[in-house]
Every structure is written in C-alpha cells, then in structure tokens.
Amino acid sequence: MVKIIAELCQNHNGDIKVLEEMVQAASEAGADYAKIQSLHSSELTHRKRFDEGLVEGGKVKTIKRPYKDEYDRLKKLDLEEEDHFKFLEFCKKFNIKPLTTIFSVGKIDMVSKIFKEIKISSFDCASHRLIKNVSKKNFENIIVSTGATFNREIKKTCEILNNSKKKFTLLHCVSIYPTPVEYANISRINFLKKFCSSVGVSDHSNPEISKNIIAAVSFFLGIDVIEKHFTILKKNETKDGPVSVNPDQLKELVNLSKLKKIELKKYIDENIDDYKVLLGSENRDMTDVELLNRDYYQGRFASRDSDGNYIFNWDENNGSK
Fold first, then answer.
1. How far apart are CA 94 and CA 7, in angstroms?
2. Where are the domains of the chain?
3. Residue range 208-227, pLDDT digits in tens
4. CATH fold of 3-311, please?
C-alpha cells in the first residue's frame, strides 16, 4: 500500500492551534504521515546577490528574493523546539506518524531526539555533509527528495546511505512550483529504482488544475510513497496554498492510492488524454526554472559556528556549489 505524506509545510502560518487542526484533518483524510519543516528564520542566510536579483537580456539569471522580506515572512512561521514536541503529541493524539524535513546541520541533534524518520529536501539531496551526519543518527528511515539534483549527486547520496546501512526512500520531484504536468517526467521513478528499492513522488502540481493525474500515473508505475502539500486554510492565505490539497482533495488522493492496477488504468484512460506526456524521460535535463531554484535554495539555510560564520550543509568536495 502506498504511504501518503501530508506535507503541512508552512501552511500553519505559525499558529499552533491551526497546526493541531491540520494534523487532525490529515489523519481523518487517511494520510499515513503528517510532516512539518524544521527550519528557522535565524538560520536564513543573507546572500546579497539575491537582494536585487539579476536579469540580462530579458532573461532571469538570479532570482530576486530580498533577505529582509524573506526573514520577516519566515519569522512569523517559526516552530521552536517545544513546538516540535507539541507536534509529536498531536500526531500521537490523532494516530498519524510524525515526520519533518531538516534544513541545517545544526538542527540534526534536536530532530534526532524527537523523530524516528526524517526527510531531506530536494535542495539538500546533494548536501553530502548533511547526509553523512544524518546517517550517523538512529533514524529508522531517511526520505530523500531528488528534485533539482544531478544524477551523479543522487548516486553519491545513495552510496553514503548504503554504506551507513540505512533504510532510505528516494522521491522523484520536479522543483517547479506549481509543476505543469508536461514537466512531470514520471518515468524518473524507474531511474531511481536503480539505486533504491523504495521510491516515491513529491508532487507539486496544482490540484485545481492537474487534479490527481500525476499521482494516478505514479501509482500505476508502482511507487511506495507520495508526498503532497496540505492545507486547511483557504489556498490564497498561505504561500504554499496553490500547490496544496485540502482535506477533501487529500481524501480523494488516499482513495486513489487504494485502487488496483486495472482500476488505475481505467481512471487514467478516463481522465488523461495522453498519459505519455507525463512520463517524460528517465534522464531528462533540468529546466531553467529548476536551475534558478537550485541556485537560490541550496544554501538558503545554514548553521553558524562560534564566530558567526555560516556552516553550510555541503562539504567542499561534493560539488553542491
């Protein structure tokens, strides 16, 4: 049976009561996991080139994301350590497994005290310092998203995790928000199966436009896990709203995941004009949008040493930067 991760992300808007209601709603819809993000505004890095961005010849070369604006936005969304323990209590109360994404090496010790499983975001799939340090902890499973990551980097990450004897899952992901279905490249699932027996999809398509067609084809190809952003608020009230499912849509996704293969084929035939468009290529090239997102999000968060210098998630030789 496919495991369903309800990615709560920042859709709680920093409100613990909303977070509890989200956990309850995700559980009632049938999700297996509720996931938060262990990021903190204090670890946001100030990289001056993103304050102004860069456009040359009418083409974006560097994303414009001013530090102050981003810091002010994130500050309102911070979940402190005690909030993580509250989240754990919510998950226990509503009988759903807790999960989090880690964004800096400085959060590993804290997260390892609370969670049995952990998620690595696409933009840290190639952060081999982070991967190595996480693999030394007693996590029962490590889920790694692979969007905006080169094949050689995915291979290296799998080598590290295999050498550590860790159980892990690879998620195919396209780092475009929202993801148009023509860029889904779902056949990448077959590529990831060469490195790992447990594979899945992190789906960032807009559910109002794309419905469940990426999920349906992914289920048909045989995945173990699917992650989908989730909200109980109106979709214009949070930054991640446009790529998030509401409780009814999450329930539809859960029900779809339970269909037999012959039933999935019927669903695909009835709802998708040409499912081959979604398959794309196992060895596709990243789009310009993904490369721009990679440039911004890799290094977006970092810990600091005693002198205040950034400790980034990658080591000097792994090619992340």
1. 16
2. 3-311
3. 999 999 999 999 999 999 99
4. TIM Barrel (3.20.20)
